[in-house]
């Protein structure tokens, strides 16, 4: 089971609205269960370098079905997943990537957000993920 | 001068509507004047391999400010630009990529569409490009 | 708004002169607002490995509109942006990359310098960035 | 023996002047005997996709110490070097890349030019190569 375009658009729109509300300029990427891009948008004047980061966060969150920040705790020097970022053509393991689940809890994709502090990136990503999970299919 | 998110969304929506109307399943990518992605969508059940092709078509159209199919005429065996596709981390030089101009004719980005015949890819891309050029700024 | 060739040449010349003055051998790269190379020079006997580093520093500074050394403070183990260097085909996050602003303060590109200590790299880059900002347009 | 910065600047300036004279917008790259970039410039509004092509032309000309167009004759379907463009992270084998020789005829680097017809690319590159060979060392 994988996210539909309609669901990906809901996630994208909800995250975009959250970004506008928080007055932050974001890159927002949604991937499907195969970790392939479904929808994307970059807000005017958002950091250009965050384009790739937002996509990598979404992929990373789906690659391991957990929030990117959780992986980052394990990839520190001395940690069990030290430098896992070298795999998969580059992972991003700080906050801003979140798996997207349907209303039965199954992972159907992921969202990645980049453009501000990692706390704001995470908040905006959560708004996107929540929007999908809230919808009755 | 570069395409705004609002203009990129207009192009994406118009191209998506054209794809629905023609009953084809497309990947649609919009890049800015720096050839960097601004908006993207992949329709349900669209070819997965067309994801990268749609982005490369958009980049190629902006890289040379011409329709991708025009470059393909020049890059054939014996042609003046034979194997130009090896540059820029891979170009796509068959139809489906079109520069996006504002209503004064300046190139502000490009659209790339992939998922069906190259004729249909081009038709859908044109719908997206036309939607931006038609708008009074 | 993006740096012109004339401005990029001013930045390159000023940085080169600063390098000669400090008796250091540098690679110097200027990118535009799309993070694409505009001018470059490598001084005789400058480190060959610094060629790529200078370009990556310039791109990194433009990707996030801040000095590369600032990003490096945040990307340390335990920091919020740990291992961000894996994005964008490789970032360089130690000093030597600086955004270039016009005389109204808008970012129009960036300069990256590599070939000596990071302190000297930064000093030479600053000379280049200052040369552009000083000019009345 | 390799091209000096001073010689590379002479080649770059001569090629740039030829481009201005012919009213064409070019990307111009000079590499040394190790096929590594020494100087580069991109003229305002030159094709963005020609950035990479100009560098690849310069590298290709030095990789094989011949004009890029000569290699292109051999890399056609059925030819002895068919699809050689797949090597070295991408070659460009149509005209616009020329070895740079010193006034004793030794190859010390190469120039690559891209931004217009391959004939004009070649003409501008020749102006750059000639400027170095004409100088008594």
UniProtKB/TrEMBL annotation, chains A, B, C, D:
User: Do you know which SUPFAM superfamilies this protein is assigned to?
Assistant: GlcG-like
Pfam families hit by this protein: HbpS-like (PF03928)
> Which Gene3D superfamilies does the entry mention?
Haem-degrading domain
Protein name as it appears in the record? Heme-binding protein
Organism, by scientific name, is Hymenobacter qilianensis
